[in-house]
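Escalated from tier 1: manganese (II) ion holo job.
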Amino acid sequence: MREATQDAVSRVDEARLWQRHMEMAAIGAIPGNGVNRAAFSKEDIAARKRLIAWARALGLAVSVDAIGNLFLRREGLERDAPPVMTGSHMDSQPRGGRFDGIFGVLAGLEALEAIQAAGTKTRRAIELVAWCNEEGGRFAPCTMGSAAFTGARPLADFLDVKDNEGIPLRDALRETLAATPEAAPRAFATPVAAYVEAHIEQGPRLEMEGKTIGVVTGIQGLRWFNVEVFGETAHAGTTPLSVRRDALGEAVAIIRALHELGRGMDDSYRFTVGRMVVTPNSPNSVASHVLFSVDVRHPDPATIRRLGGAVEPTVRGAAARCAVKITPTLADDPCVFDQGIAGEIERAANALGIASMRMPSGASHDAMYLARICPTGMIFVPCERGISHNEAENARPEDLAAGARVLTATLLDLANR
Ligand code: GLV
Ligand code: MN
Ligand code: MN
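Tier 2 regenerated the structure:
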């Protein structure tokens, strides 16, 4: 490892990194040590302001694109050379934890602060990005920010999406952008030399194997749908079952039929209905409308395509008296990360004496879309018992710092190519 890299890595400050996690965790804190920081909420805005304040103290240039991805740039010697990017997201699940997403942002900031403190010059700029709406918990689907930035999806696909309160994304986005006027406007699809994202593993493997760094090989495929069931509201006490069009009763039958898709599937198969919006949602009224989400995942490309293709006919086949509408909201095949970047991460971990292993990701990440436009990799660190998307999500300060050190070394290497 070069002396300048060693110098920068030695300036990664475990206590500062942990303290920043705790400061961010206070924004949207919920009982049980968790975080609720929905995309484009007032908590999201507060987190953006906090990050911008830290970045400005380091002299980083701040910009934001039309979907609200926030970029913080440390200039390189060659201003026109495409930058190396790092980052993750600051939004959380409704009952999320203190580390999912925010670790990748704060590890990137820590790397930049360490590099700055060492006075290390790099050929390329290094950009830290906080991708907007990675979680999709408020506005579905997930990973919207990186999809729009990379051109995988047009911004127009997302502007009319509504949250559970009926608020359209375009309104929440407008308020979010207005809250940080100091951020310069930034175009989509600017060239990127390489992207490296740090994240907690969100599963138990690193902890079980006693390793500190996961060198991520790729991300499994997924399909998301919104399924709507249209019935008719009626009095629960007076309306005979034989004449009802009960949207909720029918939604339950449809979900049962969808569960049958998993019969005989291998252990990699994932199926989740995690969101349901019932109208009018009253104990003594038959439901007139139900919207529920479907999330199906599998690492094999042919299998995820087959499963995704089976959702609509299964829903239609199970619907009896109610009309249904099936809207696909996300269709991503499995992605395989760049071998060269994986090798760089592994070499950095080895040189720092940090135990690593290669592993695939079960969770989705913005890196999946970045992989379509530049060499991409991810660094995982352990989280306690693999618990995630849960208030109890936890990680150890020393593991977060180890991840930030490996990230610092990897970014410096890539920024000098
Ligand atoms: C991201 O949180 C995912 O759904 O995998
Ligand atoms: Mn995440
Ligand atoms: Mn998540």
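The pocket of glyoxylic acid (ligand 1) is lined by residues 135, 142, 363-364 (CB under 6 Å).
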